[in-house]
Amino acid sequence: MDSLKIIKNMEKYRQAAKLEINVLEKINEKDPHNKHQCVQMLDWFDYHGHVCISMELLALSTFDFLKENNFLPYCMDHIRQMAYQICLAVNFLHINKLTHTDLKPENILFVNSDYTITYNAEKKRDERKVKDTTVRLVDFGSATFDHEHHSTIISTRHYRAPEVILELGWSHPCDVWSIGCILFEYYEGFTLYQTHDNQEHLAMMERVRGPLPSTMICKTRKQKYFHCRRLDWNDNSKAGRYVKDHIKPLWRYRLSEAKEHHQFFDLLEKMLEYEPSKRLSLSSALLHPFFLPLRRGSKAWESTRNICR
C-alpha cells in the first residue's frame, strides 16, 4: 500500500512540490534499497494541475504517538533506537549535500505504530509502548542542496538553531541542533524551547546552555537583541521570571544517574553546542557511546528493537 500527497493547483505550491520531487528522486537514486530511513517516493504525476506524489504508507508520527500517550516520554531504549535512525537518515542527507531544515517530531513517522498497553501502578495510569521503533524521515519540501539559495529563516520555531535566529547563515549543523531538541522532547515529553519570540528563545538558550559566544554576538546583524555584547534581557520582567522559573540548565533535566542517562545528556550537550563549527557532526554522533548497544551488531539491534526495559 502507498499514500498520496496531493498539492494544490497553485503556482507557488507546484514549484515547491517539484523541488521536493527533485530531492526524493535524489534519495531514491542514492538509496534504492531504502537503507537510510528516508521515506521512499514510489511515483509522481500531474492530475489537472495538482501535483500528486505517491509514497510508502507510514503510520503515526513520533509526535502524534507522544500526544496520544498523554505526552508520556519514550523509554530510553526506544529513544536510543529512534535517535540512531534519525542520525543515520540525516547523515545520509548531509553526505549527499542536503540539509533537511525542518526536522521535528511531526516529520519522523513510525513504519508501524501498533502498541501494547501496560498499567503503571505507581502512577495509576495506562501507558502505551510502541511495538516497533522503525521510523522514516519525511517532508523534504524545505530540504536544500548545498549549492542552492539558502533562505534566511528556516525550521519550525522550537527546533531552530541559534545561527538561524541570529541570521549568521546556516548549513548541516542546523539539523543537528534540531535533532538535539527532538531527542530532549522524546526524553521529557515536552518541548525544550516553548516560545514564539526570538529574544525569549535566546534567553531560554542561555538558561539551558550558558551565555551565547561573543563571536556570534559580534557577527550578527541582529544587534537589537544585545547590549554591550550581552543579551538584552531583564530577568525581573514577567517574561524573565517565566524563563527563570520554567527553564533549567540542561543537565538538571536528567531523570536518572544511570550511565545511559549520562551518555544521553553528553550527546545532547554536543548537539546543542552554540557554535555550528563546534557542533557534533552526525557521522561522529553515530559513534557516540550512547549508541554502543546498537553498534555491537545487527543481533543486538534486533533483540532490543521491540523491548523497552
From TrEMBL:
GO terms for cellular component: nucleus. Belongs to the protein kinase superfamily. CMGC Ser/Thr protein kinase family. Lammer subfamily. Keywords: ATP-binding, Kinase, Nucleotide-binding, Serine/threonine-protein kinase, Transferase. GO terms for biological process: regulation of RNA splicing. Residues 1-291 form the Protein kinase domain. It holds the Pfam family Pkinase. SUPFAM superfamilies: Protein kinase-like (PK-like). GO terms for molecular function: ATP binding; protein serine/threonine kinase activity; protein serine/threonine/tyrosine kinase activity; protein tyrosine kinase activity. This is dual-specificity kinase. PANTHER family: DUAL SPECIFICITY PROTEIN KINASE CLK2, SERINE/THREONINE-PROTEIN KINASE DOA-RELATED. It is an enzyme of class 2 (transferase). Its EC number is 2.7.12.1.
